[in-house]
Amino acid sequence: MRLVDETCIGALERIPVGEGREVDLGGLLVAVFRTRSGSVHALEARCPHRGGPLADGLVDSTSVVCPLHGWRFRLQDGAALVGDSPTRSFAVREGDDGNIYVRCPAPASDGLGPAESPD
Amino acid sequence: MSATGVAQRERLVVVGNGMAGVRTVEEILRRVGPEHYDITIFGDEPYPNYNRILLSNVLAGTEDVDNVFINSIDWYDRNGVTLRVRSRVCSVDRWAKKVFTCDGDSAPYDKLILATGSRPYFPPLAGIRSSDGKLLGGVFGFRTLDDCSAMLDSVRHSSRAVVIGGGLLGLEAARAMLARGLDVDLVHGSGDLMNQQLDSEAAGILRSTVQQLGITVHLKTKTVAVIGTSRVKGVIFDDGSNLAADMVIVATGVTPNVELAVEAGLTVQRAVVTDDRMRSLDDHSIYAVGECAEHRGQVYGLVAPLWEQAGTLADNLTAHNPKSVYLGSKIATKLKVMGVELATMGLKSATHEDDEVVKFLEPKRGIYKNVVLRDSKVVGATLLGDLSKVAFLLQAFDQGRPISEERHSLLFDIGSPDTQRSVAELPDDTQICNCNGVDKATLIAAVKAGNRSVKAAMSATRAGTGCGSCRTLVSDIVELACGGTVEEDPSSGYYVPAIPLSKPELVQRIRGMQLRSVSSVFDALSPGVEDALSKPGVASLLRTLWGGEYEDQRDARFVNDRVHGNIQKDGTFSVVPSMPGGVTSAAQLRRIADAADKYGVAMVKVTGGQRIDLLGVKKQDLPGIWADLDMESGFAYGKTFRTCKTCVGTEFCRYGLGDSTELGVSIDQRFKGLESPAKMKLSVSGCPRNCAESLVKDVGVVAIEGGRWEVYVGGSAGSHIRRGELLSVVGSKDDVLRLVGRFVQYYRLNGKYLERPYAFVEREGIERLRSVLVDDSEGLCDVLEAEIQASVDAYSDPWSEGDFPVTPNQFVRRIPVK
Ligand code: SRM
Ligand SMILES: Cc1cc2nc3c(=O)[nH]c(=O)nc-3n(C[C@H](O)[C@H](O)[C@H](O)COP(=O)(O)OP(=O)(O)OC[C@H]3O[C@@H](n4cnc5c(N)ncnc54)[C@H](O)[C@@H]3O)c2cc1C
Ligand code: SF4
Ligand code: FES
Question: What's the distance, Cα to Cα, between the start and end of chain B in Å?
Fold first, then answer.
């Protein structure tokens, strides 16, 4: 098994309630969501359909809907509720210090190049 | 990968990354998951697997090329399948069990599948190839995405196309060229179009239908040569006549790609001969599937049989069902030609003297129906011009059970709710969607699992998302599975899916319980179930009901309304500043130009709504570009008032009867940004010539003689075409503003979420609207006017948020890691 890194992405408040925001973890783009029911979740930021930005999707307590064509993913594990294929999910927690920590495969050994993005 | 000492997985190599090969892999994965085989696919095309069938639609421009891909590169990765694109396999060493690519790579296999498909057959016409053996410029086969792109490139500087071959593919290609604006001649050697599938009578009717579309058909015409030195100039026929052409598309059949198999010493006749398990006859670790396989003397050129072969092959390769055998397929086809409805199955005419033929002809209307029965079983059918019986006949044909019906009912539905019955009778395993291989049972299961709308069932199963020819059937089945319609699908009456209340009920509760935020509505009315897709509808309603007292929660908004731009396919946004009445100025245009330069705007476009769109702006640049433009939002992204188009009117036009520009600008300024169930597009024309298209707008105003104005509502010319209905004729611009205000507010209160005025006006009826809004029959007008005034007063320009974001990181593309 490869080692996993836990990356601090800063205070919970950086993400508005009920929304998601995208972070770049050394080339791996992750969408972190903060639901109204108080949980945090992290999914791969690019929709497996056509690369839509999941962090811009509509979120409820259990799912996020991709803003481009409506594929819908379970926040818990990335399962596809609407659409053909699931997306990756990453373990995430809110630390005692109020910061969010995302665990994902060490970027260097992940083999994923920096994802394509409009900036 | 196997460092842990786990036994080596068997290696499966597939040659051909096309429809049959990848389908087989999908079937294997479905049975045993990705762990069972170590799978490598070689494909000589540069793409992941795509739906070849759709190329006809891409060529015709009715399908976007992005939609043809079946599996993304990501799909291969996720399923542990190694894909080698642009890799042509040149030889197979059966003894070493290895395949070799033309550029020297090799891969060992335990099991090998040949799925190399076929390629276009080019008859040996004089001049068709240049000296290097390549096709003469402008001559095309039609098989691959690259063929399709090459033709589309060529179309731009061509005006005449000749299509050689009047079969399915030739007809589809001809129709596509016609759709692209070329003059099209279709040349066919036989005396009958689609002579493999149609008898002469049907072919005759098809011919006139096709000619009516505008394609010139030449039958019994043999092409002998292609003229042109570097590019094609035309074709010559055997009678010495000729036709000029800038493009020649050859669709005279296909040749299976069997060279590999021949070289490997496998038995090949027309194609690679297989047994009933799709194994080659000579080597039991080599299989063939798809158009390169010959089974019991048949080589199929349609996908449905390939799906069946792929299923059997996957059963065999996974020991899923070791007894599984393929016994051949019955074939049925549909022509994908816009403007021609044609389906055929099995025999085209009687072949035994006892065969019974039931037939109906109406050449004038292009209708031909023919059913061939043997021992009362349907063994063939042709339907041209009217496909209402196709589901029923396909089922009877597939099942092969005797038909008891009176014969006329095979061709017509006389006074019976036809499709319902026939759809109900379809056996569960009938394949409904031939592009994605979805059968009736799967579709019904998806509906039962909660996908109760046609759209949901389609996206859950992918049925109907290919060439689209089965969509009617899909919706009939969804309807059937829903058991009728509305009763079984209660949410269709709800305002939003997650709250079991109609709009009036919901409005009553919201007012009664004083609910002012989206989350409080969910807490109170849909305990415990927050639903992402229901949030924007609730937000829109609350804003209409509470105006300034509404408690805004930004997560309830779709991203467009969070950042005040329309999201585009790559995650950037468009910026459409307000430009009331389409009137701008040199100074404004200069600012727009400067902003476009500064922010690297991908395209500056004049919209259909008379303003200017700056496309491809990055999220983080939005505040900056808004500030530089110094214009207000045009709300081109919202479910709001959008624009009011105008014409030049009395000020300049010699026909003008009213100052339409001025009125349009006033309307725009008054109603700008107003939240509504769906977007509202208005217009004002200065005279009944209607240059601003007022009769097809949500609200359209037309100046008439005598200083008066006609007000039309419920028009549309988007996905629906509807002529607006005259609500009233009023005497002044102020009267127009007042009446439009009443209508807009009434619609805001009573329209269902996403219901455009064209649907709303239809539902309410113009008489009722006139009585409520003009004659004030219910005494509502004062209230409506007061409410709309309150909403107008509550307007603020969302682009001012650029300087004062309301949520953390509102315009940040990506938050930096600390
Ligand atoms: C920009 C523009 C095309 C253009 O370049 O001219 C446009 C662009 C879009 N239209 Fe449109 N429509 C545009 C004028 C029209 C018009 C013509 C008009 O406004 O006079 C129509 C027909 C009139 C009508 O609306 O009835 C039109 C009928 C539609 C429809 C069909 C609506 C219907 O119910 O019939 C949709 C789909 C929808 O709303 O669900 C749509 C949806 C869209 C969307 C928003 C699709 C989307 O959700 O992403 C497009 C956004 C592209 C983008 O990424 O920015 N667009 N669209 C036009 C903007 C006008 C403006 O200044 O605001
Ligand atoms: C324009 C068009 C419209 C059609 N419309 C319909 C329709 O409406 N209904 C219908 O049922 N059918 C239709 N068809 C037919 C259908 O697309 C084919 O029957 C089907 O694609 C055959 O699948 P296949 O996998 O056998 O071959 P293909 O899909 O052609 O796949 C074979 C693949 O193998 C590759 N290959 C070949 N040799 C090698 C090699 N040596 N090494 C590596 N790769 C190799 C080829 O490049 C190709 O990518 C249509 C076909 C076309 C071209
Ligand atoms: S702009 Fe309108 S018509 Fe054009 S592609 Fe987008 S939605 Fe379709
Ligand atoms: S990109 Fe996400 S649904 Fe299409």
Answer: 35
